[in-house]
Amino acid sequence: MSEDITSKAPHGFDHIVVVGLGLIGASLAAAISKSDPDIEVFGVDVDSPTCGEAISRGWVANACAPESEAFSDFVKDRADLVVLATPVAAVDDYLRLLRDWDYRGVITDTLSTKAHILAATAEILPYRRNYVPGHPMAGSEKNGIDGARPDLFEGANWILCPDADTPPEHFQRLHELITSLNARVVAIAPDEHDDSIAVVSHVPHIIAASLVQLAHRHADEQQSLMRLAAGGFKDSTRIAAGSSKLWCGIAFDNACALTSGLREMQGIIGDFADAIDAHDREATTRLLEEAAQARRALPAAWVPSTDKLLEVRIPMSDRKGVVAEVTTIASSAGCNIQSIEIDHITEDRAVLSLVLTDEGDVGKLSAQLIDAGFSVSFNPLSPKEHIHVD
What we know:
The chain is α/β, with parallel strands linked by helices. It has 3 domains: about 180 residues, 3-Layer(aba) Sandwich (Rossmann fold); about 100 residues, Orthogonal Bundle (6-phosphogluconate dehydrogenase C-terminal fold), CATH 1.10.3660; about 80 residues, 2-Layer Sandwich (Alpha-Beta Plaits). Helix content is about 45%, strand content about 15%. The strands form 3 sheets. The chain has a 6-stranded parallel sheet, with helices on both faces. The protein has a 4-stranded antiparallel sheet with strand order 11-12-10-13. It has a 3-stranded mixed sheet with strand order 7-8-9. One of its GO terms (biological process) is tyrosine biosynthetic process.
């Protein structure tokens, strides 16, 4: 495989390796195979029955153990994308294999924390720029391949973390693949990932576990208190049924950010407790109303309309980090990029074309792009105008 893979015209991936066929990896293999049966998906897992199950379900063309020659042969001869969907502890070994096999294609991952893998890829991979961190914000209380399903990522946010070294084509191809699964790409800076995910994912899991602990401590032998639990309690604590081993690993992988979030949460709960203890109705109402207003503002952002699309065209020099900069600005403005294309005008000039749904603050996006030195143009599109015709 040629070293300069960025010289190829942007296109989808034809041969994909999914390493780790647990809940996320198996669901990804299933979703890709369902979305585009022409893509060859190769699975890797340490558990032989899991490999056999993935093959029997038609989610992978073949699957094997990491030590099998079939794995190394596929990577060396065919793979253009490797997805690491393993626990953090297993990542280094696979990165070393990819290095030893001189793999020069694109690499991404599904890990919920990034500190370790960012350091490991920088140390191990000779072609570090070909690694684009990823994280699908999807899951289930069920674990392993038994909980996997091809629609797991539909409507879910999928984080990509491009940096200054990320080739534009890598981001474009991954964006195309992920959105073909009906997931939505959110771009954030790699060094911001763990702090952000601690607040919206890791802290909520610990809070859910704490709520169950609280109820369990007050339940009698007949569990009558648990039978009183209404839908709200069940909905807010569903994630507490997840794998304790998995979540213990996540907690320690992201210990600093998680601890900080939990300490901040202690302060918020303390504010409620103090206000109620002081019979301060005004303060209690204010705290509740702040949360209520913030929560009411969320659904519109989660369910964008595709009745009206907006094309943003950004002339740019083909310089280091430009796509990471633009996509991060778009995400910070709450704008969902439905598709992304790069039109190369000359060797060092291109036009970046983003098609946005109607969510987010377009005015903020425009202002931030202009402040960053970009010139931009906006053009309304209809869904029909945006249909790709082969």
